[in-house]
Design brief:
It contains 23 helices and 19 strands. The two termini are 36 Å apart. The relative contact order is 0.07. It has three domains: 127 residues, no CATH class; 196 residues, Spore Coat Polysaccharide Biosynthesis Protein SpsA, Chain A; 169 residues. Helix 1 packs antiparallel against helix 2, helix 3 crosses helix 5 and helix 4 packs antiparallel against helix 5. Strands 3, 4, 5, 6, 7, 8, 9, 10 and 11 form a nine-stranded mixed beta sheet that branches. A six-stranded parallel beta sheet has the order 16-15-14-17-18-19. It has a two-stranded antiparallel ribbon with strand order 1-2. It is an alpha/beta fold.
Amino acid sequence: MATPRDSDRLLGVALRGRHDAAFDALAGGAGVGRTARALAGSLVDGEELPSRTTQQGVTLPYVVALATAWFGAARDEREMQAAVEVYRQVVQRLGPGALRRVERRHYLQAAFLVGRHDLVRRGLEELPDVSADVTEGLLADLVNPYAEHTRSPAGHARWEGLLGSRFAARGLLGPSVDGSRVPVFDGLRLAPGRSVDGPMVTVVVPAYRPDRGLVTSVASMVSQSYGHLEVLLVDDASGPAFEEVFAECVALDARVRLLRREVNGGSYLARNAALEVARGELVTTQDADDWSHPERVARQVEALAEAPRAAGSRSVAIRARPDLTRQWFGYRPERMNASSLMVRRDVLNRLGGFDTVRKGADSELQERLALVGGVVDVLAPLAITRLAPGSLSRADFTLGRHSPDRVLFRSSFRHWHGQLADRGAATPEAAALRREGPRPFPVPRTFVRGLPGAPPSGRLPLVMVVDQADPCPAALDDRLAAWVRGSDGVTGTDEAVGVLGREDLTRAGEGPAPWSDVLLEAARESRIELLTDSDRVHADTLLVLEPSVLAVAPEPVPGISADRVLVAAVPPSGDEPPRDLESVGAVVRALFGRAPEWGARSRAEQLIWEQEGWTMPLLADSVRSTRSVGVL
């Protein structure tokens, strides 16, 4: 009998791949006896879960994981409604303890988001051990008079008090809200309750084509209790249509200075530009549409004063939608706020500032700071960050899934950080990221699109498709393995060879697989170029060395195109897991509009096919030939 851990693994696969096969595997583990989609339809139509699906320790973990997958993947509205029904029926049948703590949160959030407020109210009374930030957030959200689907809105004053409860729990005043503002997020207001002084703090606020949220953001910074600060507002080449909102921000306070960039480069290049003229002993940042509590700067400065060896500090934020409701399925309303990072300016300068990429540089910097003193956390909510639809960061994260580019970026910078630690790097100079010369670690193309030094888009002579975690299995012959490592010239020219890494979901775990050090090292030394599904590249030849990564149609559709597609025909054997080559062929035809040309990864596999009656060329030979003669 499979274990509950298998259900968690299948849940991870379903959330990352979003394919029917993974959902059906969960339904199979639950003993449903039909497809997951068929079950969803019957639940929405009022049917009960079969009794066999809720056997504790046997089928129950699978049916609850299926509910989480339905809602987390958000493939369609009926599945999301069915998810709530699964949670409800499990609790009704087995009691609140049948759900794990995180599953109770999922139930409450899902019920709120589909408008089942009756279930949320009942669950808040019955479900044990739900964290305070979730509970108090839901209590406020249920009566929010400014949310579109509120069933029982409270008066403004009562709702405002509930909104501020998380601040009050940490001895802070909660904000008032001007309910006439649209969206109401921009009605957040709070005057400082004290006046604090100390070393100058520079607050950097980058903005590109901002809306009125920028005024909210800057106003919250000039309303800090900490008076000795400057606000460097950076216009990242927004254009003349946005002059008015920038002018309004500058007029808020004499401490606001406007810097203009001629060419758009993203928030981290804007931060680096501000760093060059910053006067503060400490530097922090503020996102262009967030709101910071008046105590944010003061509390973080105090934390650094109490921890003189720390390189920086950060604080907690409450996530909220423009209507100030706080539910994002699978995520707690409170988190450590990456954009609150406050760093000693001399340390930041010696580290080389932020990486010159469009995404993720604050996370990279924060983890690198662990080598040179670390970051002290202020465990109090000192900001409300806006969950804006379509934002760059939100689009990259959903429950259980990070975009492929985020996975590559994180794998890459952590590999470099590990090398720094192995070398004993403990000073900013030793851990510095140099802005000139070769990069110390590869980054996704999309993270440097339009920036100096970005690789050109267009054509590559050869792109190899591999399992990003295991690109050189033992079954590859020496020539193919050398090509993947970039240690042998395959094209006979100086043209770059691409390696498209994908996760093999047929062997995946609960979380996304990191990229192999083999690939990261080869890319760092410019022997290969790493690609993800996001990259729009045309390959003369696409060489699929691990067919399982294309066993099901990728979602979203990869941006790569190809004139010719060669695929490894991995034969059945006791040493290899089975590959569904028929499905792989169908996916290749759907993606690239052509049939795959099959080949063997090694002479040993070629002989196995010969024994089965198939003539199969070696892939390494096929790459260099004008056409392949393999047929499968």
